[in-house]
């Protein structure tokens, strides 16, 4: 059975428990490679980078399949509890972990961003739940469990914490579970409550 799928420039990327496939438009799926290990029963996130390499994030590992060399790279430097992966418009890959901050991959170089919000807000690298990236504005939002969101303008490398506020209730301390942008440029946040 298919455990993950993602559209890419070369076609639909399909993932099963044991193999990686590509399905070009109007063609049958083509097997690219066996997975380095069985990833059954794990939530997966899939992206394709600017070089056409395929990144697969499971809860416990980050895998990168190099489509030129046809080799897997397992990024063991990324701690377990991976919750999300995304690619910025400049090609950098951002991987979020629940309790170890963000990992940024830039042309083969890796950096662990331990402080994902100002220290004064009391949130460092803990309680991350997900990411939202708006490529038009180059804004990355980081979701925290029970601690709202941090927003980073990636071209400025500045991160600010934002609270979601209801006029009648003051600050909402519930989980932000979804973000979306409007045509007018506003960011809408959906909370658990």
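^ structure tokens above, recovered residues below v
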């Amino acid at each position: 059975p298919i455990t993950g799928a993602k559209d890419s420039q070369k076609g639909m990327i399909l993932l099963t428990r044991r193999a990686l496939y590509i399905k070009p438009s109007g063609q049958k799926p083509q097997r690219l490679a066996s997975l380095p290990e069985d990833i059954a029963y794990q939530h997966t996130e899939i992206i394709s980078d600017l070089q056409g390499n395929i990144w697969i994030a499971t809860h416990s590992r980050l895998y990168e399949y190099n489509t030129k060399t046809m080799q897997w790279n397992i990024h063991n430097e990324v701690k377990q509890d991976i919750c999300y992966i995304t690619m910025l418009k400049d090609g950098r890959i951002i991987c979020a972990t629940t309790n170890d901050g963000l990992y940024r991959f830039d042309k083969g170089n890796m950096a662990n961003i331990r402080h994902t919000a100002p220290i004064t807000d009391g949130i460092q690298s803990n309680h991350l739940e997900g990411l939202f990236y708006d490529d038009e504005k180059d804004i990355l939002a980081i979701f925290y469990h029970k601690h709202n969101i941090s927003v980073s303008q990636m071209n400025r490398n500045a991160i600010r914490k934002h609270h979601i506020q209801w006029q009648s209730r003051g600050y909402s301390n519930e989980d932000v579970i979804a973000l979306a942008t409007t045509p007018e440029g506003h960011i809408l946040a959906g909370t658990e409550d």
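The mean pLDDT is 79.
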